[in-house]
Specification:
It comes from Mobilitalea sibirica. By secondary structure, the protein is an alpha+beta fold. It contains four helices and nine strands. Strands 1-2-3-4-5-6-9-7-8 form a nine-stranded mixed β-sheet, sandwiched between helices.
Length: about 180
Amino acid sequence: MIYYKDEKIIIRDMKEEDAGSIYEELTTQDCHPDLKTYQNYYIEQEKREKYVFIAEYEGNIAGYVTLIPNVLTGPFANQNIPEVNNLGVFIKYQKKGIGNKLLDVLEEVAANISDEISLAVGVHSGYGQAQRIYIKRGYLFDGSGVWYQGKQLEQYADCCNDDDLILYLSKKLNG
């Protein structure tokens, strides 16, 4: 399904062959992707466990984002509040409005599920652009503090500033 199309950008559902393209692009960006993750995205989409939105820019895959309709972990667990999960725009396509367009489409779909949407964002500087885009779009911290490896950290707890150190945010939809 195509959710959005203009002269340069298309936002659509994931195709099975997209997993390999995403993996290949991420390996050029000093990332350590796992091909199985992206293959599972397609499987989860087909089982309707997750929405997977793919952005194309001038015919090339430029990014992706997933939406989980009802998360099982974190402060929004089992509340039927959808979660933005793993927004990624490839470096060579950043600063072209692709991330915002992916989120526009995702939020429109999420609004059919709930009047609120949530997300978790990493704390380290590698997530700086994502942190900024979410705040600019009206997401607010939920107040539950820092989480690490799926657990809410106690005040002054030791942790590692890696990809598992996250903060949760949410946003009201439909008004």
